[in-house]
Design goal:
single chain; 294 residues; alpha/beta; Purple Acid Phosphatase, chain A, domain 2
Length: 294
């Protein structure tokens, strides 16, 4: 038997600045056609501001159209960013995280996938010092004890690292070294085979210390596609389809017909944050968009 997981990431949904909505609707139609065993959405559900209630409500409404079962994880634009350099000076906080959990449910979870164990984690808690961080580590240790040596795949928002697990540089693009250390300590002897993340808006498949690392692209947009990636990754939009079976896992990039590799800088028109970008109300979208709103 094969267990299929479709990973969508970074849809950046907003009713007032609906830059990512058309692509997301194409992904919804594709998810329905593929009918995977699980849809995993790895964060940045909202456009840019974790304190924007309208964006949170709109993102929740949009995801209801995905085929079930689906699971979600928060991104830095959903509950705030990690220290020491949080985006727009909005660090992850107990209040922001609690608000997210009230709306979406648990921000860490586990799914059985044939002989695999698929774990979803809140990477914004890594090294945060919040009480919920300790709760997540304790929960993860319990999951590891129950795996019985089965292979483990971890889904989260921020990549575990940029190049290797021993790197010491702190970057907004990845989990901090301290967060990564705590993750590895909590994971202990688990047979970690795959780490699937989002956040970077690039598609990349590589390996670090024998662990397959997949960066899922954003469904919404990329940053400066004409500029080569610093990670030899593909600056495109799309999703990733995984197939888990007892002997291993495979993955492939999914790009529906009509999807657009939009450049976020064309949307922003020089604004530092998308929350300050020009308005594009969802009602202005062309009426011929698949599953579009009118």
């Amino acid at each position: 038997m094969v267990f299929r997981v479709l990973q969508l990431s970074d849809p950046h949904l907003s009713p007032a600045r609906a830059y990512g909505v058309a692509n997301f609707e194409r992904m919804v139609a594709t998810a329905r056609r593929l009918a995977p065993d699980l849809v995993a959405v790895t964060g940045d559900l909202t456009l840019d501001d974790p304190d924007d209630g309208d964006d949170r409500a709109f993102a929740f409404e949009c995801l209801q159209r995905l085929p079930r079962p689906w699971r979600v994880l928060p991104g830095n634009h959903d509950i705030g960013d990690t220290m020491p350099d949080p985006w727009m000076d909005q660090p992850v906080s107990a209040k922001r995280r609690h608000r997210w959990v009230e709306q979406w449910g648990p921000d860490w979870w586990v799914e059985e996938a044939e002989e695999w164990v698929i774990v979803g984690l809140d990477s914004l808690l890594f090294g945060s010092g919040l009480a919920a961080e300790e709760e997540q580590w304790e929960w993860l240790r319990g999951v590891v004890r129950a795996t019985g040596g089965r292979p483990v795949a971890v889904f989260l928002h921020k990549p575990l690292c940029l190049w290797d697990l021993a790197e010491v540089e702190v970057s907004q693009r990845a989990v901090t070294p301290e967060g990564r250390r705590r993750f590895r300590a909590a994971l202990g002897p688990a047979e970690l085979r795959l780490v699937a993340s989002g956040h970077v808006h690039q598609y990349r498949a590589w390996a670090a210390d024998g662990i397959t690392m997949i960066w899922a692209p954003s469904t919404a947009f990329v940053s400066r596609p004409a500029v080569p990636s610093a990670f030899d990754a593909a600056k495109i939009v799309g999703a990733v389809l995984y197939r888990f079976w007892p002997g291993g896992v495979s993955w492939e990039l999914v790009r529906p017909d009509g999807i657009v590799d939009a450049d976020v800088h064309r949307f922003s028109r020089g604004a530092w944050s998308l929350r300050e970008a020009p308005l594009l109300p969802v009602g202005w979208l062309k009426s011929d968009q698949p599953e579009g709103r009118r």
